[in-house]
């Protein structure tokens, strides 16, 4: 391809699955795009696809210089390579040919602090930088992802028209918005993934209860999830779950889902979410339970051995009304999900406060309504809740969500009670319910913990009836009153 003609509006480097599909999406929306990859067969593959998918305006380049020089100024380049060192290497290769005012956009699942470092490095060369979360997998990248760009607002201004066309479209606009400064785009994507882990865990628990307490078959499960996908739980993850139950095992009897090894892999964004929550002292027990669930799933052999040790435990199986159980599980799933989203949004708030990002939570919920993995009808309700009150302390105290929690509370407790009695572990639903029960209580047993801390460490405590920090000689006083109690006997 002729290197000197600067014809493309934008460039994309890194042509693995996500990169190829996003490049084709951009081209399809009418923006001429240049693409580049270190392994040149990927370039040819992408050019061929562009031809076959409607002669899209996409040109391939085999070296960084030709690639960069093929872009109109100010140049904007999206890079979609593995997070970490490969991003630095790609930036180095490309920026050698870029000029002040040009922009680099990293679309990977990057650790937000790497983006903050790169923003500073780019600035020292006069370059602008965006760290952009991209969600929706292969299909989303090709047909409309949810995009979470953060960093230089000027850089976003240069590509806003492209991003708004390329993103998924929902009734209230494209699923993209400028998130904020620094690494905010990556951070928001990271929390999106934490919420994604929580959703997947909760859905798998609903499946477990329906199957192992309710005795539902895969066929019935497919039907139930299809039905749920027509109501308040309507979402991408519920929809794909229904599909999963329908797939037969081509290599044997029954459905494929039963042949899949019960060990969950991960790439790490969920773990970062929980680490960040701990750093910021924000409780995210449902998301943490989903992470622990993945860790424990990995101990397949240990679990098999433990199941022998405890083979005598069978749980209390009471006869259940199937229809009622299904309806209760639906409600338990919905209520648990609200708690999980409340945790994720509160983590975002804490980080936004710490970094001064001024995140717009209503907008975040809106751009998650389409394109991304957690897309769901109920995100519109979250959007409305934050639009009504941008300073909402928690989704749990939004009047609409509070009403829904109250309506579902009994069914939720019935499901948790049944599962616990039957010995079916539901860590996500339990974590959500405990979170709810803790959050809604004006008084907790934390008074006793404070007293213990003061007794053994003189850490002091506050009182409910007067201000100040107090210390008590608990042991001495206890001995005194202890001898009095003994004397009374
Ligand atoms: C998305 C997803 C995606 C993520 C995968 C895998 O929004 O499109 O979040 O970015 O990489 O879901 O994540 P784990 O391998 O950690 O489960």
Task: List key phrases describing it.
single chain; alpha/beta; Single alpha-helices involved in coiled-coils or other helix-helix interfaces; two-stranded antiparallel ribbon; 20 helices; 9 strands; binds 6-phosphogluconic acid
Structural write-up:
- With 489 residues, this protein is an alpha/beta fold.
- It has 3 domains: 10-182, Rossmann fold, CATH 3.40.50.720; 189-439, N-(1-d-carboxylethyl)-l-norvaline Dehydrogenase, domain 2, CATH 1.10.1040.10; 446-488, Single alpha-helices involved in coiled-coils or other helix-helix interfaces (Up-down Bundle), CATH 1.20.5.
- The protein is 56% helix and 8% strand.
- It is built from 20 helices and 9 strands.
- The chain has helices at residues 17-28, 40-52, 64-69, 85-95, 112-124, 137-143, 153-166, 184-212, 218-228, 236-246, 269-279, 285-297, 300-309, 322-355, 361-367, 379-388, 399-422, 427-439, 446-457, 474-488; strands at 10-13, 33-36, 58-61, 76-79, 103-106, 128-135, 146-151, 169-170, 173-174.
- The strands form 2 sheets. It has a 7-stranded mixed beta sheet with strand order 3-2-1-4-5-6-7, sandwiched between helices. Strands 8-9 form a two-stranded antiparallel ribbon.
- Strand 1, helix 1 and strand 2 (33-36) form a beta-alpha-beta unit.
- Helix 1 (17-28) runs parallel beside helix 2 (40-52) and helix 1 packs parallel to helix 6 (137-143).
- The radius of gyration is 26 Å and the shape is globular.
């Amino acid at each position: 391809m002729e290197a000197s003609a600067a014809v493309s509006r934008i460039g994309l480097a890194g042509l693995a699955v996500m990169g190829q599909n996003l490049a084709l999406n951009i081209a399809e929306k009418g923006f001429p795009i240049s693409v580049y990859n270190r392994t040149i067969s990927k370039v040819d593959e992408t050019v061929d696809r562009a031809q076959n998918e409607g002669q899209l305006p996409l040109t391939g380049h085999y070296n960084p210089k030709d690639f960069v020089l093929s872009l109109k100024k100010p140049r904007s380049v999206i890079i979609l390579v593995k997070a970490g060192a490969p991003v630095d290497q790609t930036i180095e290769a490309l920026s050698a040919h870029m000029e002040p005012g040009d922009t680099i956009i990293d679309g990977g699942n990057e650790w937000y602090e790497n983006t903050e470092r790169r923003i500073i490095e780019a600035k020292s060369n006069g370059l602008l930088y965006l760290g952009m979360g991209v969600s929706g997998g292969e299909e989303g990248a090709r047909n409309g992802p949810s995009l979470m760009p953060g960093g230089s607002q000027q850089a976003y201004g240069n590509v806003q028209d492209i991003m708004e066309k390329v993103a998924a479209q929902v009734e209230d606009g494209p699923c993209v918005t400028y998130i904020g400064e620094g690494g905010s785009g990556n951070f928001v994507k990271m929390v999106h993934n934490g919420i994604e882990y929580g959703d997947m865990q909760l859905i798998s628990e609903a499946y477990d209860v329906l199957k192992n307490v309710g005795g539902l078959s895969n066929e019935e499960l497919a039907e139930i999830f299809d039905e749920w996908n027509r109501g308040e739980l309507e979402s991408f993850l519920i929809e794909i779950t229904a599909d999963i139950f329908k797939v037969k095992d081509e290599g044997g009897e029954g459905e494929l889902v039963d042949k899949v090894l019960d060990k969950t892999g991960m790439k790490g964004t969920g773990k970062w979410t929980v680490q960040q929550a701990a750093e910021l002292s924000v409780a995210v027990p449902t998301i943490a339970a989903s992470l622990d669930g993945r860790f424990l799933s990995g101990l397949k052999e240990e679990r098999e051995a433990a199941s022998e040790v405890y083979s005598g435990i069978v749980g209390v199986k009471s006869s259940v009304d199937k229809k009622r159980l299904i309806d209760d599980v639906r409600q338990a799933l919905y209520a648990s999900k609200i708690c999980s989203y409340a945790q994720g949004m509160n983590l975002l708030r804490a980080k936004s406060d710490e970094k001064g990002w001024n995140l717009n939570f209503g907008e975040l919920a809106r751009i998650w309504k389409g394109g991304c993995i957690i897309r769901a009808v109920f995100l519109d309700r979250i959007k409305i809740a934050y639009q009504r009150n941008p300073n909402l302390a928690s989704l749990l105290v939004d009047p609409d969500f509070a009403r829904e929690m109250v309506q579902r509370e009994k069914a939720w407790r019935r499901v948790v009670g049944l599962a616990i009695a039957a010995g079916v572990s539901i860590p996500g639903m339990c974590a959500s319910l405990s979170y709810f029960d803790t959050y809604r209580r004006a008084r907790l047993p934390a008074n006793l913990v404070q007293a213990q801390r003061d007794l053994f460490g003189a850490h002091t405590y506050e009182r409910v009836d007067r201000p100040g920090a107090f210390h008590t000689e608990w042991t001495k006083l206890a001995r005194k009153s202890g001898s009095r109690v003994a004397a009374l006997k």
